[in-house]
Write a structure and sequence with these properties.
Blueprint: H1 3-22, H2 26-61, H3 67-92, H4 97-114, H5 116-131, E1 139-142, E2 145-152, E3 156-160, E4 166-170, H6 171-176, E5 179-181, E6 187-196, H7 202-215, E7 226-232, E8 237-246, H8 250-268
Antiparallel strand pairs: 1-2, 1-5, 2-3, 3-4, 6-8, 7-8
Helix pairs in contact: 1-4, 2-3, 7-8
Length: 284
């Protein structure tokens, strides 16, 4: 005989015993017990509504809690209060609450085993909502996925890619993956590497780059823009450029610099070497 059978039989016996006790004093006694149970039910419902309203007010004051977590906490509290109400009413009718509690425990175990993957995602969702590694609107990299966070659910995290594809990532995968949040900080550094010919004087190249950097209105002066020679390549000198800007201006600054530095190099006669092959024909 299984545990589920034992608990079910115990519950049936408890319910049967409750009905026997209910009608032991006749219909008048049964009616009195039912009225008491209904009054207890109404009282429990009133108390439940008050407690849920107080919980909502408390959660509303906690502005750092995501809306999804707010909803989850309220739902769990509502289920718990319904369970307590059921226990109180059952006890008033003479039903053994311990048997009912045991049955609920067995059913809960069976359900948890059946939906263990979903529970894993749920646990991941609670972890994300409590630790807040990102928020809606942030541009993030989660494992191999990149995009803007659209929704943080209890089971999935939804993000939209730059080419407008919607990706749903299971929260258990989010918790296990490396997460890079590109929107977390107000400032971001733009790193660019450019090459120039060995024939171009280093100071002239640096001055030309600095003029472009100083003229760009979105580049911050503090920290100051940086442009220096970084390495000697096979056919060119490599220069590294580092500037700071507001997070939202990153791609504008990045592409502007690529275009404006090329224009400035052309104006100053600074060549950018590229791989090429020269073929010479000799006529005997």
């Amino acid at each position: 005989m299984t545990t589920e059978t034992i608990d079910t039989e115990a519950l049936e016996n408890s319910v049967q015993s409750g009905f026997d006790n209910l009608f032991r004093n006749g219909w008048e006694g049964a009616l009195k017990s039912v009225l008491i149970a209904l009054l207890l039910l109404a009282l429990c419902l009133v108390i439940k509504a008050i407690l849920l309203k107080l919980l909502d007010r408390a959660l509303d004051r906690l502005t750092h809690i995501e809306k999804s977590l707010h909803t989850f906490i309220r739902s769990m509290a509502n289920i718990l209060l319904w369970f307590v109400t059921l226990m109180v009413v059952a006890d008033s009718l003479g039903i053994n609450a311990s048997s009912l509690l045991a049955l609920v425990g067995v059913l809960g175990l069976a359900v948890s085993l059946a939906v263990k993957d979903s529970l894993s995602n749920l646990a991941g969702g609670l972890t994300i909502l409590s630790t807040r590694p990102f928020k809606v609107g942030d541009y993030v990299e989660i494992g191999e996925n990149n995009g803007t966070i659209q929704e943080i659910g209890l089971v999935y995290t939804s993000l939209t890619t730059l080419d407008n594809r919607r990706i749903l990532v299971p929260n258990s995968s989010v918790v296990d993956a490396n997460v890079t949040n590109y929107s977390a900080e107000p400032l971001r550094r733009v790193d660019i590497k450019v090459t120039a010919s060995y024939d171009a004087p280093v100071e002239k190249v640096k001055q030309t780059i600095q003029e472009v950097l100083n003229a760009h209105e979105l580049i911050l002066s503090d920290p100051p823009p940086f442009a220096r020679l970084s390495s000697y390549e096979d056919s060119a000198l490599e220069y590294v450029i580092r500037v700071w800007c507001a997070n939202g201006d990153y791609w504008t600054v990045y592409h502007d610099l690529l275009e404006q530095i090329k224009t400035a190099f052309d104006r100053e006669g600074i060549s950018i070497p590229y791989p090429h092959l020269e073929v010479k024909l000799r006529k005997d």
